[in-house]
Structure formats: structure tokens, C-alpha cells
Amino acid sequence: MIQRLLNWWHAFERSLDRVQPRQARCAIISVVGFTLLLLGLLMTVLPGPAFVVIPAGLAVLALEFAWARSLLHHAKRYAEKLRRRPVQSGHSEPQVATQRTR
């Protein structure tokens, strides 16, 4: 039994030696980025700052993936467009509720 555990441990150590730093970096970025993205998408229906977490997840994924970089770029352009849009208010004076009496 102990010999089987030692054999497994040595095989595990040899497999760790084969993992390249680039592959490990890609895996870590993928896990963290997709986790943030999933949490942000959940926050669109649950309480939480989805408009902060989703771009954070895309920013992490953009370190490794071109599609995330492109999506983040489009999101930045859209946010800038919204920021430059003039604020439209319906009324210049506050609305006062009137009460009907019978």
C-alpha cells in the first residue's frame, strides 16, 4: 500500500516537471477570468456590482485571449459613448404628487 502511494507520488512529481510555465499561466488566467466573468453574469440577476466584475473578468481573459481583448475594447468604446451622451431629464422642476379628494 505504501509502495503504491510512493509510486503515485513520484509519477505526480514527474508530471509536474512536464508542465510548462506558459501552460500554467494560461490555465490560471483562464480559471480566474472565467470565474470573474461567471460571477459578473450571475450578478446581473443577483445583487452585486456586475458592471465592475464583468469588465474585470474580461480584462483578465484579455491577457491571454484575443476575443476577450476585442470584446473589452468594444465595451470600453460603448462606455465612452454613453459617458459622452448628454443627460436627458424629463422635467426641469420636481414633480409634486397631487392628491384627489372626493
SSE blueprint:
Layout: H1 2-18, H2 21-42, H3 50-62, H4 66-84
Helix pairs in contact: 2-3, 3-4
Task: For the record, give the distance between the C-alpha atoms at the N and C termini, rounded to a whole number.
Answer: 90 Å
| CA radius of gyration | 25 Å
Assess the beta-strand content as a share of residues. Answer: under 5%
Helical content (DSSP H or I, runs of 4+): 55-70%
Characterize the largest beta sheet: strand count, sense, and whether it forms a barrel. Answer: none
> Which whole number gives the mean pLDDT?
81
**What order do the helices and strands follow?**
HHHH
| Net shape | elongated
Q: Structural class from helices and strands? A: mainly alpha
Question: Could you provide a short overview of the structure?
Answer:
This protein is mostly helical and 102 residues long. The chain has four helices and no strands.
Describe this structure in words.
There is one protein chain. The chain is an all-alpha fold. The protein has four helices and no strands. The model has no long low-confidence stretch (mean pLDDT about 80). Helix 2 (about 20-40) runs antiparallel to helix 3 and helix 3 (about 50-60) packs antiparallel against helix 4.
Describe the structure using short key phrases.
single chain; 102 residues; mainly alpha; 70% helix
